[in-house]
Design a protein that fits this description.
Blueprint lengths: L4 H8 L12 E7 L4 E10 L2 E10 L2 H14 L4 H4 L4 H7 L8 H21 L5 H4 L13
Antiparallel strand pairs: 1-2, 2-3
């Protein structure tokens, strides 16, 4: 597989890696079949993502997509962060091999799951705001 320079950079030098002790939104998504598991930590103040960290167990593409996704949502209002799509993650990384597209889907889902957790902690039903978070597909790793 050939990866772009941006994928290689985010894999070798991941941004925002680790966990936030004072996170008020945490989301974990993954698929044991693929072996990729992402955990996203958000610190939200006044509707803005003040800080974000991630821990990812998986391949280089999974780490790269987690890293770029955190950069894309840090400092953004929640409604803007919820517009993050796997397509935007792929474009920001200058592309991903077809067999690794599922990693960008995980990054999108991790952000949405963490925002949903934030709303739940505030006593707000996240579904009307975040939408239904689809379970990660079972067939993506068979590509």
């Amino acid at each position: 597989m050939i990866y772009s320079e941006k994928v290689m950079d985010h894999f070798a030098n991941p941004r925002n890696i680790g966990e936030l002790e004072d996170a008020n939104g945490v989301g974990e998504v993954g698929n044991a079949k693929c072996g990729d598991i992402m955990k996203m930590y958000l610190k939200i103040e006044g509707g803005i993502i003040e800080d974000v960290k991630f821990k990812t167990f998986g391949c280089g593409a999974a780490i790269a997509t987690s890293s770029i996704a955190t950069e894309m949502i840090k400092g953004k209002p929640l409604d803007e962060a919820l517009k993050l799509t796997n397509k935007a993650v792929i474009e920001a990384l200058d592309g991903l091999p077809a067999a690794k597209i599922h990693c960008s889907v995980l990054a999108e889902q991790a952000v949405k799951t963490a925002v949903a957790d934030y709303y739940k902690r505030q006593g707000i039903d996240p579904t009307p705001i975040v939408g239904v978070i689809e379970e990660h597909c079972e067939t993506c790793c068979e590509v």
